[in-house]
Specification:
By secondary structure, the protein is mostly helical. The protein has helices at about 5-10, 15-35, 35-45, 50-75, 75-80, 85-110, 115-125, 130-140, 145-160, 165-190, 195-215, 215-225, 235-265, 270-290, 295-300, 305-330, 335-340, 345-355, 365-380, 385-405, 410-435.
Length: about 450
């Protein structure tokens, strides 16, 4: 029996207090990441040609960068679940470096070669004024995938050892670097918004990767010092059976972003919708992040006696709280304060955002429940079910986007938010069905 003190071995029972103690540092870290996009959008809105640069960042650079990094996103869940000993850790680390290297080469090919024109002009049909700023931004985002891979992989080890409070330090420093660069760009005033934003984001995530890699070192020394044998050592075959469905899940989820950008570009008020989209996404993601942070908590704790019921109650309470907060923002002057004063959008774009926000109210609540259901499936290695659920999300949201494009009478922002909300609802229902059918959640 291992002497390693992991979360799955520290207690024989679980209480809501324990769930909260593990969750809140992760939630704080996610919230800090979540406010990054609103801050970036607010600065870009106050520099030259805000509509163009906001559309370039939110409609092209960010979606494409996320699509390329999609396979590394689930390294957090994989590391949390599989880094059980030093041998498994080294195996996973080698896998992480190889995958992130290949994806970085892909990013370079898209950003620096004629492949960019094929993707942005021919496939996404991005408006002409947005293309060149977006190209520059994508070039400056080249370090993004590798830094994210290192950060998420090492964070999995930290979570497995229950040291979640230290994760927030890396995120706080990331945000500090980000805000510092954005502040300099705003003060200088003549640097294009897309350049300021992407340099800030790239250097910020690189900073976090370095900090997290430093924080994890004592835990790795501890892992190396512990000697015990595993009945089923990690192999490439086992890893791929576990990880490929998760990677496909991230890819399918994130491919919806460029699909959405392409659809918005073909609907009424295309440039307005693309400009408001990152501001709307920043607000909803800040609240959704509280639920998204819950997945790794579930992965770490769901195997404990009585944990499923307690984690399920926590997820429902968290979901109701976060969706209620967004509802209050939508129903009060806070929405106009967010879009007009904080984000710095024009009165016309502010009005568009205030009307569209109602379509996003369900997103934070669904994200919390989704994290509980996905975490349960990851713990039981039923990762194919997660891929199925995301495929349902993609089909649902894309169908609504296609219908909106065909109809051609509704502003793209409304159709895009309706597609995301409907898709996430269908995804969550399928996850619930899969959990119930495999006895992963209690009646």
């Amino acid at each position: 029996m291992s002497s390693m003190t992991t979360l799955s071995q520290t207690e024989s029972s679980l209480r809501l207090r324990k769930v909260f103690e593990l969750w809140w540092p992760l939630a704080g870290s996610w919230v800090l990441m979540g406010i990054e996009l609103p801050i970036v959008s607010a600065v870009m809105a106050r520099l030259a040609d805000p509509e163009v640069h906001l559309a370039a960042y939110g409609g092209v650079v960010f979606p494409i960068a996320l699509i390329i990094e999609a396979p590394v996103i689930m390294l957090l869940a994989a590391s949390t679940a599989l880094s059980r000993d030093w041998t498994s850790y080294v195996f996973l680390r080698r896998f992480m470096f190889q995958m992130s290297g290949v994806l970085t080469v892909l990013h370079i090919l898209v950003a620096f070669t004629p492949l960019y024109d094929v993707v942005v002009a021919d496939v996404l049909h991005v408006p002409e004024p947005v293309r060149e700023p977006a190209r520059i931004g994508l070039m400056l985002m080249t370090p993004w995938t590798g830094a994210i891979a290192i950060r998420r992989f090492q964070q999995g080890v930290i979570i497995r050892y229950g040291q979640t409070r230290s994760i927030g330090l890396g995120t706080a420093l990331r945000l500090f670097v980000n805000v510092s660069i954005l502040g300099c760009g705003l003060y200088w005033g003549t640097i294009p918004g897309i350049v300021v934003a992407t340099i800030a984001v790239s250097l910020g995530v690189l900073t976090e990767a370095v900090v997290v890699n430093r924080i994890v070192q004592p835990l790795l020394l501890r892992m190396q010092a512990e000697h015990y044998s595993l009945s089923s050592p990690l192999t490439l075959g086992r890893l791929l059976r576990f990880y490929v469905p998760l990677a496909m899940t991230s890819f399918l989820a994130l491919i919806a972003l460029p699909i959405g950008s392409a659809a918005l570009s073909r609907m009424p008020r295309a440039l307005d919708s693309l400009a408001v989209w990152p501001v709307m996404a920043g607000l909803s993601f800040t609240l959704r992040s509280l639920g998204l942070a819950f997945q790794e908590v579930v992965v770490a704790l769901v195997g404990k006696p009585g944990a499923k019921a307690i984690l399920g109650r926590f997820a429902i309470g968290l979901g109701l709280t976060t969706s209620t907060l967004l509802l209050l923002i939508a129903a009060t002057p806070l929405a106009r304060l967010w879009f007009g004063e904080i984000a710095g959008l024009s009165p016309e774009l502010t009005e568009l955002g205030c009307q569209a926000i109602w379509l996003a109210v369900l997103l934070p609540g669904l994200s919390a429940v989704e994290s509980f259901l996905q975490g349960s499936l990851v713990h039981s290695h039923q990762t194919k079910s997660i891929t199925e659920a995301v495929a349902i999300y993609l089909v649902t949201s894309t169908s609504i986007l296609m219908a909106g494009t065909y109809y051609g009478q509704i502003a793209g922002l409304y159709v895009g938010l309706l597609g995301v909300s409907s898709g996430l609802l269908c995804q969550t229902l399928w996850l619930w069905y899969r959990n119930a059918s495999t006895a992963q959640i209690p009646e």
